[in-house]
Amino acid sequence: MAQKLTIDGNTAAAHVAYAFSDVGAIYPITPSSPMAEACDEWSAQGRLNIFGQKMKMSESEFILNWLEECRTKAIDKPLIREGMTHYRNLIKILTHQMENEKNDLIKLIISVH
After folding, report:
1. Model pTM greater than 0.70?
2. Spatial separation of the C-alpha atoms in residues 66 and 94, rounded to whole Å
3. Smallest Cα–Cα separation from 54: which of 62, 64, 45?
4. d(C-alpha 85, C-alpha 66), whole Å
């Protein structure tokens, strides 16, 4: 007989997402949902999806590094390079990583005047 569980919607969605996905991305933003944390935990425990694989989890730093590498390779393709730049900046804004850059810019402006 199948096991029955009473769970919240986020956990139910995480079970389905994990079962049918190869890769999951985690963005440390607020408010967060337990879906990413559940998938990350199951992957770390070695749980297999329907393809017989662990879900590969990707965090924002990995994605930012990849985008930076893509921007470097697209140096002669300005539209692609600028699209990558905007996507990178959006991820930095969502993950609260632009604060340091804004503070550095403010300090630079103040020091020049």
Report:
1. no
2. 17
3. 45
4. 12
Which value, to the nearest 10 degrees, does the dihedral of the CA atoms of residues 37, 66, 92, 20 take? -30
Owner of token pair 């965090």: 59
Q: What does the pLDDT read at residue 30?
A: 47
Q: Is the pLDDT of residue 52 over 90?
A: yes
Report residue 104: phi and psi, to 5°: -65, -40
- DSSP lists the bridge partners of residue 19 as none
Determine the pLDDT at residue 57. 78
Contacts 24+ apart (CB under 8 A), 32-39: 34/8, 34/10, 35/10, 35/11, 38/10, 38/11, 38/14, 39/14
Displacement of CA 31 from its chain's centroid (Å): 14
